[in-house]
Amino acid sequence: MRFISLKSYLILLIIIIASFCLLFTTLWVLYQSDKQTQQQTNQALNSATKQLHVQLIRVQTNFERPDNFPNLSLWQEAENYSGLCVRFIGLQDRVEQSICRGGGVTRSWPDWFDGFYRWVFRPGKAVEQALSHAGKHYGSVMVLPSVDIALDNAWQDVRKLMGLATLTIVSLSILLYFAIGYALRPGRVIVEELQKMKANEFSSRLPDFFITEWQYMGREMNQLAADLQSNLAERKALALKLVDIQEHERKFLARELHDEFGQSLAGLSAVASLITQLAEKDYPPLAKQGEKVSDITSYMMGLLRDMLIRLRPADFDELGLIDSLKAMIAGWNSQSGGKTQYQLEVIGDFSDLNDTLPVSIFRMAQECLTNIAKHSKASNALILLQRISSTAEPNVSEHILLKIEDDGIASDLTFIRRSGIGLLGLQERVDALGGTLQFKTLTPSGLAIHIEIPLFNGREVGDE
């Protein structure tokens, strides 16, 4: 479906309305032209009839010879009607005299106008009036208008009207084009503001407009942007608080599991080993059961270690973000058995970040690597962590870029629509930190994940 701009639509609508007005005006002009021809014909009939009445009076009073009647030359000399023929029809229905004025014209009108005018107005209709005097009937006077002259007069009137109307419509359209464009300029400003709001930019505000409707819309848009900005800030603060609470809970659970459950498993393993040693001499069957208990305890301790790594790396607080990432990369390389080569590249210093952001970066990298290991069937995976200076946004001094790339089997982004809890949690973390998350397929196959987190004048979201 093709769309048309509001300005073009209004101009087109004005031209269409003006064209209809021109059409009706043209019909009115043609009607007036035909009416004028009829009036001239009737006036000529009355004038010729009066002239003949006067001539009859002169004949009766012997001021004029009877054989001079009828004499229409007096009408021809006295009147200035063009395109009319006056005929005197005697008692025998015979034309006794006929006089015409201005009958020949050069044809300048087109055929379509000729046919239309003849079809609508039926030009050339004769008018007739009986001539009687002193109770005696002498015949009748007939006036026939010239069809060609009627057509020529009508066409000249239409040409003048069309020329003036065309000039008026063109001039009016040009003036209205600029006037409407100026009046609709706030619409473009509002669309630009909506595009910013679509990109989650709610800080800018619309200016005041001199047109009431635009001013009302702008005021409502500004209020909407302010409400959305406030709601988004509250949502980010709440999400960040939830992430922070989640990390504290994970830290607490990791500590409790390590201190309580881990120590209990260690004690259980020691007791099982002691039972095995004592039972080997006195009761060998019990020694085998002790070995089974030791195996189960070792398995549970392995599960506990994996669980503690997922909850919070044991040495994260001591090692910091970068060393923890290196340890995680080493762990993935060890687990993959050479099927996937994991690499880490770090650009910049990350030692001045507070506790929440490094842990969130680690969690996001951990989630991405987990998805690579589960789904990508990649041979290589790269994690790039970079600190980038920024001047494009106010109050944003730097960005932290976390980019994860692999050469796996991904060839499109349809998996995003059916993503599970992992990608949803990743998006929530990014939103809570005020960042952006983008997915991009690589050639010939593979996936790149770009995460950018802003640092507001050196501080991340949530710092006071």
Describe the protein.
By secondary structure, this protein is α+β, with helices and mostly antiparallel strands. It has 3 domains: 177 residues, no CATH class; 113 residues, no CATH class; 145 residues, Heat Shock Protein 90. The protein contains 11 helices and 10 strands. Strands 5, 6, 7, 8, 9 and 10 form a 6-stranded mixed beta sheet that branches. Strands 2-1-4-3 form a 4-stranded antiparallel beta sheet. Helix 6 runs antiparallel to helix 7 and helix 10 runs antiparallel to helix 11. The radius of gyration is 51 Å and the shape is rod-shaped. The two termini are 51 Å apart. The mean pLDDT is 83.
Number of domains: 3
Structural class: alpha+beta
End-to-end separation: 51 Å
Envelope shape: rod-shaped
Unreliable spans are none
| Number of contiguous helices | 11
The helical percent reads 55-70%
Radius of gyration: 51 Å
Q: What do the pLDDT scores average to?
A: 83
In total, the number of strands is 10
Strand content: 15-25%
* N-to-C series of helices and strands: HHEEHEEHHHHHHEHEEHEEE
Largest sheet: 6 strands, mixed
